[in-house]
Write a structure and sequence with these properties.
alpha/beta
Length: about 475
């Protein structure tokens, strides 16, 4: 038995040795082949260099022609020889017809924007570009310096109006629209469409970003009165909300899984604050979908500035509202956590506060309805996607400020898309201890709401009495 094992071990050792020897032999053969190829390449290069340095002597016929002819005739003869070598004989040249020059661009005959769009009615213009003519002209005026391109000797530059129209048309489409369809409609090249949208969003974020601004001390009272008259929640200057916008894939990210949210789909988070007129007063985009709302809030400039008293002044007793996943603070009120033991005062407070948060939800629905690009999975790079989302918010504010119309069909598209879209991630209730001052303020607001509710009910009963 021992002898058989020794024989087997010797056989295995011999096989291993033969295998290694064969592998080494193959490596040697490959290196030799590579060296042969390099040697041939070097030999060819040397031959070419030698021919250039030491050209072959002229033949007897060339010597006789050079002696009998003048230098000018010899140079002309050489030029004719070169020309005959380079000239290509084609069927057209044989028939005596000069070939047509090759066009460097493809000209298109569709002039939809130049001829048909000026004939649109106001409603048709709104249906196609999702803004009114007045707002369209205003946007073009603001972006004139950034979108104007110089003419060249080869072609005329695309006008600013056409660039803005292409960008608005793309952002307003709720269904995916290919570059080919847009290029055929506007008589542009497919490669130009993506660059036009990028230039437009970059210019909007550069020039029109100040249109999203936090309310000043003068306008805070107007916003507070607006929320109070609408839902009966006093001293509120905005509603804080978070929304996950779907991504097709996180292009340009070294860690794509960072954009995979807890519900299992890629998204980018948009943090915003809205007022009683469904306008955005604060917007921040670009957060990976994996992050939770609390972590984004703590690292945001809104929290830092508000904590330092630079956004919400201490002289005014005003506040923002948010959902239960945010920390309760003096300037940020949140609902009571419903654990089944809430009293009537707390339930009324929660009801009024959620009515304020509904304003933010309405603003997001109008944003996605007007700019249907947000209903699709964005397939742009991450930095460009963030610019597109902020651009849509800026354009939304412009339309709301100038009273542009909003069609019911847009809202129907939003509802259909939301019904088919995956569910938005839900934040976890904030479990840490809050400051005593914040708890006292929330209790006072809840008690005042209950008192005002009783007074309003008594006044309504008195008015209904005969």
């Amino acid at each position: 038995m021992a002898s058989q094992l020794e024989t087997l071990n010797i056989s295995l050792a011999i096989m291993e040795f033969v295998t290694q020897w064969q592998m080494q032999q193959r490596q040697i053969d490959a290196r030799l082949l590579l060296l042969r190829r390099r040697r041939r390449r070097v030999a060819c290069q040397l031959k070419t260099m030698i021919e250039k340095m030491y050209p072959p002597p002229p033949t007897d016929e060339e010597v006789e022609e050079a002696e009998t002819s003048s230098p000018q005739e010899s140079s002309k003869r050489k030029y004719k020889k070169r020309a005959t070598k380079k000239k290509q004989v084609t069927p057209e040249s044989i028939d005596g017809i000069n070939p047509k020059p090759r066009a460097w661009t493809l000209t298109k005959e569709n002039h939809w924007f130049e001829n048909d769009v000026p004939q649109f009615t106001d409603l048709e213009f709104l249906e196609h570009f999702h803004v009114s003519r007045k707002t369209f002209k205003l946007i073009c005026d603001h972006l004139q310096s950034d979108l104007t391109k110089a003419h060249t000797n080869m072609r005329q530059a695309i006008s600013v109006e056409k660039r803005v129209a292409v960008s608005l048309y793309m952002l307003g489409k709720s269904k995916a629209c290919t570059y080919r369809n847009i290029a055929d409609l506007f008589s542009m090249g497919k490669s130009t469409i993506g660059g036009t949208l990028y230039d437009f969003t970059k210019a909007v974020c550069k020039r029109l970003l100040p249109l999203i601004r936090f309310p000043s001390e003068e306008s805070m009272s107007d916003i507070g009165k607006g929320f109070n008259s609408a839902v009966g929640f006093p001293d509120c200057i905005g509603a804080l909300n978070f929304i996950h916008i779907p991504l097709f894939t996180p292009l340009g990210s070294s860690l794509p899984t960072d954009y995979l949210n807890e519900n299992g789909w890629y998204s980018m988070i948009l943090m915003c604050v809205t007022d009683h007129q469904n306008r955005f007063t604060y917007v921040k985009s670009g957060f990976p979908g994996k992050l939770d709302n609390l972590g984004i809030f703590k690292e945001s400039s809104l929290n830092q500035l508000a904590t330092d008293g630079k956004i919400v002044p201490e002289s005014q007793d005003v506040h923002l509202v948010a959902d239960v996943d945010m920390p309760l603070q003096n300037w940020l009120l949140t609902p009571f956590v419903d654990d089944g033991s809430l009293n009537e005062v707390q339930r009324l407070y929660n009801k009024r506060l959620h009515s304020v948060l509904d304003f933010s939800q309405t603003a997001m629905e109008k944003l996605k309805g007007r700019w249907g690009f947000l209903l699709n999975k964005c397939n742009k790079k991450l930095d460009r996607a963030a610019n597109i989302f902020i651009t849509c918010c800026i354009l939304h504010n412009i339309c709301e400020e100038h009273g542009d119309g909003f069609l019911d069909s847009w809202m129907n598209e939003v509802r259909l898309a939301d019904a088919a879209a995956p569910q938005q991630p839900i934040g976890v209730p904030f479990a840490d201890d809050c400051s005593t001052d914040a708890l006292v303020k929330r209790n006072e607001v809840a008690y005042n709401l209950q008192t005002l509710g009783i007074v309003d009910m008594n006044i309504e009963m008195e008015m209904n009495q005969p």
